[in-house]
Fold these 2 entries.
Entry 1:
Amino acid sequence: MADVEAQWMANPNRYDDETYSRCGQSGLILPKITLGLWQNFGGVDVYETQRAMIRRAFDRGVFHFDLANNYGPPPGSAEENFGKVLGQDLKKHRDELIISTKAGYRMWPGPFGEWGSRKYLISSLDQSLSRMGLDYVDIFYSHRVDPDTPLAETMGALDQIVRSGKALYVGISSYSPEMTRKAHAILKDLGTPCVIHQPSYSMMNRWVEDGLLDTLSELGMGCIAFSPLAQGLLTNKYLNGVPEDSRAALEGSFQTGMLTEENIDRVRALNEIAKRRGQTLAQMAIAWVLRRPEITSALIGARHVQQLDNSLDALDNLEFSKDELAEIDKYAADGGLNLWQKSSDSQAPA
Ligand SMILES: NC(=O)c1ccc[n+]([C@@H]2O[C@H](COP(=O)([O-])OP(=O)(O)OC[C@H]3O[C@@H](n4cnc5c(N)ncnc54)[C@H](OP(=O)(O)O)[C@@H]3O)[C@@H](O)[C@H]2O)c1
């Protein structure tokens, strides 16, 4: 068995389709779909399933993996598991990989275990590197705005992190348009570009269309959109109740209040549009966020390889007609499923 494992070879054709995009006006390139390890990659989950998903993603041209200090559960265990897969399977591909992590949410007790102080960000990244067995990450994010620490300190820490070689690029997550402008300006003055923003975005959560995407274009920043499937709601999995192996059934991050009969009817209507396009609803939801030129990558989650494969096939049909977009808006925009917000300076996301 050990011999068979040692022989795993990455698919040599993994870049043939060239399904990647430039991140704003930087030299950073990201796959159109990125795999995130927030859920299903913790110490409580089956390691071999995680390993199979990471290998499969890489084999299909997904060279970006997104983490954060607190992903698990328990917090930190997703980074440990990812480090293990790296060590076992992907070490020789390190220079092909874009690995990101973040700090902002609670990670350890006391005043320096969360938010945006220089002390927290730098020590958290040191811990992340040690858990993943890395010398550097490719992207390090401030995970949320800290209303109490001066933004100049948070951005100063990001600049120091790049200069120390512990991250190649830095970004921000869930910052409002106004805070994005300020963060970008401070970093620019320091000589470190703010290359990427990571906001939530989906057919049912459109806050980024209210100024953020325009701001990012103007500043030349890229955008990686998280939870394009609204954590699974924008798939066919809740059409006939709540399956046992679903996020809604198993843990606390899913807003089960979203599963009203009215919303499920809307999801059912969206599912019919997807069918007419020859796609699953998950595929249409991913294609829908990628329709915007400002979106560099759609940042998805997956429970197992079959889900991942299904989602990656979204790339087979990324075009929408005007009529399709209008019909989607009828069910999923104003007066429809537009339930979620926001930037972290107005409300803390998951
Ligand atoms: N910056 C931030 O504050 C922040 C916040 C949240 C997430 N993120 C990042 O974004 C990543 C993705 O977030 P997410 O997991 O919420 O994204 P998502 O893609 O919206 O939801 C993933 C979930 O959808 C279901 N699913 C996935 N593919 C499917 C398919 N083809 N068919 C049917 N169901 C499917 C699965 O639900 P089940 O597990 O129920 O089967 C899966 O766990 C995270 O891993 C993290 O990297 C960042």
Note: Residues 36-40, 66, 143, 173-174, 198, 226-232, 235, 237, 246-247, 282, 299-303, 307, 310-311, 349-350 surround NAP (CB under 6 Å).
Entry 2:
Amino acid sequence: MLSVVTVGLLLSLAPLFVLCVPPIWTQPEQVHLSYPGFPGSMEITWTTFNETDESVVEYGLWGGQVFEFTAKGNTTLFVDGGSEKRKMYIHRVTLNDLRPAAAYVYHCGSKAGWSDVFAFTALNKSSSWSPRFAIYGDMGNENPQSLARLQKDTQVGMYDAILHVGDFAYDMDEDNGRIGDEFMRQIESIAAYVPYMTCPGNHESAYNFSNYKNRFSMPGRTEGLWYSWNVGSAHIISLSTEIYFFLDYGLDLIFKQYDWLKKDLEEANRPENRAERPWIITMGHRPMYCSDNDKDDCTTFQSYVRLGRNDTNPPAPGLEDLLYLHGVDLELWAHEHTYERLWPVYGYKVFNGSVDEPYVNPRAPVHIITGSAGCREKHDPFVPNPRDWSAFRSTDYGYTRMQVSNSTHLYLEQVSDDQFGKVIDSIWVVKEKHGFSSWF
Ligand SMILES: *[C@@H]1O[C@H](CO)[C@@H](O)[C@H](O)[C@H]1NC(C)=O
Ligand SMILES: *[C@@H]1O[C@H](CO)[C@@H](O)[C@H](O)[C@H]1NC(C)=O
Ligand SMILES: *[C@@H]1O[C@H](CO)[C@@H](O)[C@H](O)[C@H]1NC(C)=O
Ligand SMILES: *[C@@H]1O[C@H](CO)[C@@H](O)[C@H](O)[C@H]1NC(C)=O
Ligand SMILES: *[C@@H]1O[C@H](CO)[C@@H](O)[C@H](O)[C@H]1NC(C)=O
Ligand SMILES: *[C@@H]1O[C@H](CO)[C@@H](O)[C@H](O)[C@H]1NC(C)=O
Ligand SMILES: *[C@@H]1O[C@H](CO)[C@@H](O)[C@H](O)[C@H]1NC(C)=O
Ligand SMILES: [Fe+2]
């Protein structure tokens, strides 16, 4: 007969025996979507820890024949920069010729293992369509307070895409990339259903942003550092503000992005393009303006992102003039763990449409700072006396919703998770004209 002590000992060792059963290293995980920028396309990205013979997505129309179609893609080996040099196989498959606005079900993997079944709706390619977004930055592995609400919102179909404005996981490279794995598993519950579009933040800087570049699949062959895409009546530009701060990775990146951005804005402003997609929206991690009570760059007049740097050789241009001169309508930022809405602003000056209706035909871009999704660094405080460009502030955890209704109307609202989903701020931006000339 086993003594109580022996039984106790065996029971206490049980977890060790369980751990000895190895996971299936070819099992797909961390499934997420992104929009490659071509009407009728969707990209699916996932991870395995062993190589598989192929990377396959099987999919079909919702309610149609299950897995009627098959698409194949590519695998890249990602070796994390940490001491263990952990290997991850990142699988990418692009689906093409999807029926616009149709719902699909899919799974991904290979003969050596398949994911759960997920669903998405292909983006409607009409420029008169009104896409809906969730927007936030600074969501971590620990304390991702808004995640549960975002999961439900997404799964009931409230969003057509999500914009994550930098700072993921805190930090993806930690524990030899395991924190990145865990974060990507956490967001699968939203990112496997709608395109999850990103830009890099300072928390991604390890090993030259390698976890960011390898784990996401953004359009434009720039490893997700800067790119643009069209949806509804909007042209959305994603930027790296981090190139202004991590000069060791290459000062030339500031100039490369600037030149690319200038060309992209010129193209978007060609009369036929601006007529079809009048809204130009940018997203970048570190804001040009903010009212937070910390030592961040945006608290100073001379923010690098706004005015550039003169301590580099050659001096590096900032972004405020370039965006203003090309009539950018809306600029989305994060990094500050708060929500802040600004009156239309350029050059530290407020340019309301009118005093009664500041956002009706605003005479400068509108800025929103939304970095309060929740992370281990908690909240940031505000200064007691904000500048006159600051219109609304909240330290609640939460996120922003946006709908680009049509060529003249764009709606923004702020959801407070602390207040159980209450909408604590909302505006309509109304523009009868777009472009540089609309400022006057
Ligand atoms: C599979 O992956 C595991 C974990 O990364 C690794 O230890 C093992 O060597 C790999 N096996 C093969 C055959 O690649
Ligand atoms: C796979 O890689 C090849 C070569 O780089 C490329 O031509 C092809 O388009 C890729 N396929 C997918 C589905 O991304
Ligand atoms: C796409 O959006 C347009 C504009 O809202 C709408 O008229 C059209 O019916 C939509 N297409 C589909 C397939 O739902
Ligand atoms: C960092 O990454 C960028 C973009 O991939 C690349 O152009 C640059 O050369 C890299 N810098 C270093 C120091 O490796
Ligand atoms: C260079 O930038 C600093 C702040 O970053 C500013 O104080 C200084 O006036 C600038 N110098 C010139 C010559 O523009
Ligand atoms: C902009 O509009 C707001 C709201 O009406 C007002 O409080 C603020 O003073 C205006 N700012 C300027 C500079 O006109
Ligand atoms: C644009 O959308 C707004 C808000 O939904 C609506 O009031 C307006 O009539 C629409 N304009 C056109 C031209 O459809
Ligand atoms: Fe940040």
Note: The radius of gyration is 23 Å.
